[in-house]
Protein 1
Amino acid sequence: MRRRSPIFLFTSVVSLALGIGAAVAFLTAAHQLLFKPLHFLGEDRLAFVSEVEPSGAATGVALQNMLDLRDGASFDAMAASAPGASAPSSSRSAS
């Protein structure tokens, strides 16, 4: 069979190689993003801040509220990201 249709053999091998390569790439990315812990100095001190609407739904923090939290000496430093932003912007308090 292999000698009669080398195109079929080549297509099969290439398809298997691409499928295995894509699966390995996807699983490697998923492992790095979802399963490995984030490496931050003082990661036990990280906090996620959100606001809660009267309906009970959690939302993002308004800019003025974030600035108030930052200036109120509750946090050493803060970072925020807006929808569509490529990286969070960080801000240090003046304490």
Protein 2
Amino acid sequence: MVFLISPVWRDSRWCLAEFLLAKQLGKTIFGVLIEATPLESLPPEMTAEWQLCDLVAVQLSREDRSA
């Protein structure tokens, strides 16, 4: 299951419930940061067990190279 993580996702109780249900059902979880979101502000269940892909950092890196 892919989660597109942003501050809005982090603040949504429904998104958290969906994440926790997927975890409870044993789904493979893949988190993708699509907006700058401090990792320490994410649910500990997500950052303790799963790797996250930070697309924000990738985009910023590409912008720096093209400048």
